[in-house]
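Narrative summary of target 7.
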Amino acid sequence: MKAAICTTYGPPSVIQIQEVEKPPVKDNEVLIKIYATTVTPGDCVVRTSKMWAMRLLFGIRKPRKPILGSELSGKIEAVGKNVKKFKPGDPVIAYNGMKFGAHAEYITLSEHAALTIKPENMTYEQAAAIAFGGTTALYFLRKGNIRKGQKVLIYGASGSVGTSAIQLSKRFGAEVTAVCSSKNFELVTSLGADHVIDYTKEDFTKNRYDLIFDAVGKSSKSHCKDALSVGGKYISVSHGIAKENVEDLKFLKELAESGTLKAVIDRCYPFDQITQAHEYVEKGHKKGNVVILIEPDILR
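Modeled conformation, tokenized:
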């Protein structure tokens, strides 16, 4: 099978598509033919790994897990003899988190992994773009104890995590202020943001919020403390990693099928242009998600 291999740490050019062996299917695993995946900021962080502390975690000279990619959509091609939850032909989505492996034509996952049936109303392209942002936003909003009626500010509201955070915050009954550039006002408003602030022109700390969520990890608690109401909380994606959770993925699927959660896709690239996708994501200005079409001929 073909896979995008991170051959060493460095710029996007270190990603090379190579032929590797299709993974064998264990008794409790499913083999998934991947139709679509994404390139996320997390993939770019691992690929560069500029800090030695990160290399101790991911690998000293090159990533221990050279096939990046944390989320996917596709179809189950085969199942192990002990698998009960899925069958060949099932359309699925999965979130493999820091285990990676989605930038390939095939992947094997435990039937108990963060894996569920694809939302019926979504294409494979769309379905591949809800797990990373949705799971991350859900984890941190819960960590911030989001509640109905709260005033919530989302910093970096137009990215994959931010666009999910807007929709989830509205689902939880919050009043949402989205911080992004003015060119993305229409996008975040369409997702439910009640107020918008252009971070290049306004100081969002002049108002008070019950919860401030930095969805890009570029602010600080010290900078935002004066914008917090009494008992308010500041949370940031730089303060942890959302782990894969099947119940969260099922919840996101339900929201997608009800129309509460929409996939926001900036660009789509064919698999052989995954290097260009890394280059674009690395610039830090994408809107929502960047999707990789592993099987572009599959009906979207």
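The chain has two domains: 2-129+263-293, 133-239.
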